[in-house]
Amino acid sequence: EARVALQLICRDRQQIRDAYGDYLRGLPSEDPPLVAMSFSAVDDTLVPPGGEVLWIWAQYYPYRLASGSWDERGEEVADRILDTFERYAPGTRERVVGRLFQHPEWIERELGLPRGNVMHLEMSVSQMFALRPFAGARKQAWPRHRRERHADLQLRIIAAAGALIGLRPAP
């Protein structure tokens, strides 16, 4: 069932490239790829009976805009995101009873995340999968003399947003 899954709503790779191009020019995406999910699909205590919590996330929104501020342009951009979603789920807009647009300045101001990025970094190919924290990191090993001197430590790699290679005492 669609409402219990994380849905990537994107026509093709060109849509992602175009949105990233807008980002590089300091523009909110004209045609944003979206990720949509409904938290109330798995926790019905979040809403009254018959209600739904819809979370729509759009990628590649610059911290600094080429013109204007997020506080000035936020509603326009939020409308564009909802309009984009409406193409895939007609009738959504008329059921909205409240909304909160968490633009980069809002995220920084309200949540304390520097430069308003919930990923701790911009999700570029150079920061994904085996390239994180840097290309070749998985091949890194402590030199033998250090491993012997520090036998009480084990190398742990944590794979999560913002996580880097770390050490912890061996059990």
Question: How would you describe what is shown here?
Answer:
With 171 residues, this protein is an alpha+beta fold. The chain has helices at 13-24, 70-88, 92-95, 104-111, 144-149; strands spanning 7-9, 34-37, 55-58, 153-156, 166-169. The protein has a 3-stranded antiparallel β-sheet, with helices on one face. Strands 4-5 form a two-stranded antiparallel ribbon. The longest helix is centred in the middle third of the chain and has 19 residues, at 70-88. The chain is built from 5 helices and 5 strands. Helix content is 29%, strand content 11%. The termini are far apart.
Task: Give a short summary of the structure.
29% of the residues lie in helices and 11% in strands.
Q: Segments where pLDDT lies below 50 for 5+ residues? A: 164-171
Q: Give a count of the beta strands, DSSP E runs of length 2 or more.
A: 5
Helix content: 25-40%
For the largest beta-sheet, the strand count, sense and barrel status come to: 3 strands, antiparallel
Strand content: 5-15%
Q: What structural class do the secondary elements suggest?
A: alpha+beta
Mind telling me the C-alpha Rg?
21 Å
